[in-house]
Each structure stands twice: as structure tokens, then as C-alpha cells.
């Protein structure tokens, strides 16, 4: 079995040296992180597929494969994390290190050691770490192996398992290393004016799921109706387009765009309009109500550049906002509580220069 050899590993012996500047050494780490991000998701999916076949393994294969997984895969990642932590700690005085990376390494170490933070996985993970033959049990095996989540790690699955969680942990380490530089390069023709995380006690977004961009008269009627709700202001009182997928993955549910405004919780909904509720904490169910926790990025510069889609997953504002969040190791509640919003501080019909992105603080 050589699956472990196909991961993109960090090799400190080939990266550090007395004649290298801190900038060069940190640059090597950033380059490695980008390579690993392009390689490792596919290998984690192969690991998931391999483990899902464990029900057919003989006693000898159970013993051999259990040792292989713990030593060659989990053990190798633990050793890599040790090397990364040592190299990054040495570079901290240079001021180059995004120190959010240390939390991602700590979390990855805990998970790799079987001390999972995921309540729904604890029984299966503890059973397999205690006695690898437990993986023969179908329910345990499915919860441990999970399902293939694709190159971005976002493909919809029925069961999100422990190997999927390790895949996300690996990605988090890489994101904290290469995202800050990527964000700097993505700000071409515009820049982030301010960035903050906000948490409100609750919201009710009121509006209509309709594209008003070429229909100014109904849009003006919508604004007039929302203005009439002045006594129910939320404190974030701007026109906005809420974008969401009803708590499902973007690969299975199209984007729903709702033009409206964030109002106070429980605001009466005018006839003909719809609403989406937001609450400060999870309710244990996917989808609406979403969380009233979000990143707020304000931009300045060329608006065409802000909304450029070429080379971006969404547009420039979406990608830069998301990538700042990932680089800071803040959780995005995808897919179950995921939403974003385009905000028009000066009202619909003016430029959109503010972007909101759901987080879990």
C-alpha cells in the first residue's frame, strides 16, 4: 500500500538552511501549502474509498491495514505537524508568520490522535483507535471513513465522516499559510477598506426573491415598503441581496437571491413579501434559521474590478472575503448555515461595495 506516498508532504530537511532568509523560508512554506492544497484532497478521498472496503478485509489485512493507517498516514501527519510547528515558531520573530496556523496545527494533532471534537463521530473514532477491527461494523466504518467530498471538499454527502474531518483539518493548515498572500494578490484595482466580524442577537431579512436589476418601479415599491418598517430597524439598515441555498450544498441546490433588508427579529412581514430568520446560536437543524454571525468586508476602488468574475469562484468580493476568513481560521458553517449578502450602503441602484459572509464565531 503506497497511498501515503502520494500526499504532498512538507520536508523540512530540504527547506531550511543557514543561508536562507526568513522571507525565503516562509515563501517555501507558502509554496508547499499551495501544492498540498492541489494534491491532498484527492488522496484523502482515495483513503475514504479504501476504508469503506474494510468490511471485506481478512483478519490479517485488518491488522496490517490498521498499523498502516495509524503509522504511515496519521503518524506521518503528526510528524509533519511537528516539523511545521518548529519551523514556523522559529520564524515568528520575523513577523512573517500568520499565527492562526498554530491553532490549526493543534486541532489537527488532536483529531489525528483520536481526540475528536465532533460529538457525532466520537463513538466510532474511539472504537477504531481502541481496536481497529471495530471498522468491520458497517455503521462504525461509514462514520469513520465518510464519503468522497471532491477536490474542494464541498461535494454534498449523506455522511460526513472522520476522514472528511481530517481532510478539512489539513486544508485549514494550508489556508492559513497561503491565503494571506493570495488575498493581497487578488486585490487588483480595489482594496479592502475594513474587515470585521459581527454578531447580532437576531434578524429577520424581509424582501422578495426576484431579480429587480432591470425592473426599477417594483424595486422602488419594495424600498418604500421596507422604509415603512422604520420602527423595526435592526441596526444594520442597508439594502442588500441575500444569497443562500436553504442549508444545502451548492452542488445540489441553486442559489436563491432575495432583495430586501435586515430588520429586527419578529418584524411583521408585509403582504406579498417573504422573510428569512437569523438567530445567534444553532438550532440543531440545517437551513433556516441561519446564524446572525458574519464577516463584513468593506471595499474601495474600482467597482468593476470588485465584481469581476474572471479567475474567481464567485466574484472578487466574494473570494477575497471568504479567503480572509479561511486565512484567519474562522469557521464557515457550510453547507447547513451558509449564506452571503451583497450590501448597498447607499441603496439599491448605487454601487455595491460591502460583502457579508456567514461565519460561526
The largest sheet, given as strand count, sense and whether it forms a barrel, is: 9 strands, mixed
Strand order of the largest sheet: 1-7-9-8-3-4-2-5-6
Structural class: alpha+beta
Number of helices: 9
Which residues sit in consecutive blocks of at least 5 with pLDDT less than 50?
Answer: none
Q: What's the number of structural domains?
A: 2
Task: Label the overall shape.
Answer: globular
What percentage of amino acids are in beta strands? 15-25%
Proportion in helices:
40-55%
Rg result: 23 Å
The overall average pLDDT, rounded, is 96
Q: Order of helices and strands, N to C?
A: HHHHHHEEHEEEEEHHEE
- Distance N terminus to C terminus? 40 Å
- Quaternary state reads single chain
Could you tell me the number of beta strands?
9
Description of the structure:
This protein is α+β, with helices and mostly antiparallel strands. It folds into 2 domains: 3-186; 190-358, Multidrug-efflux Transporter 1 Regulator Bmrr, Chain A. Helices cover 41% and strands 16% of the residues. It is built from 9 helices and 9 strands. It has helices spanning 22-52, 59-91, 100-112, 122-130, 138-145, 162-186, 216-227, 303-306, 316-327, and strands at residues 190-199, 203-208, 239-244, 256-263, 274-279, 290-291, 293-301, 339-344, 354-358. The chain has a 9-stranded mixed beta sheet with strand order 1-7-9-8-3-4-2-5-6. The model has no long low-confidence stretch (mean pLDDT 96).
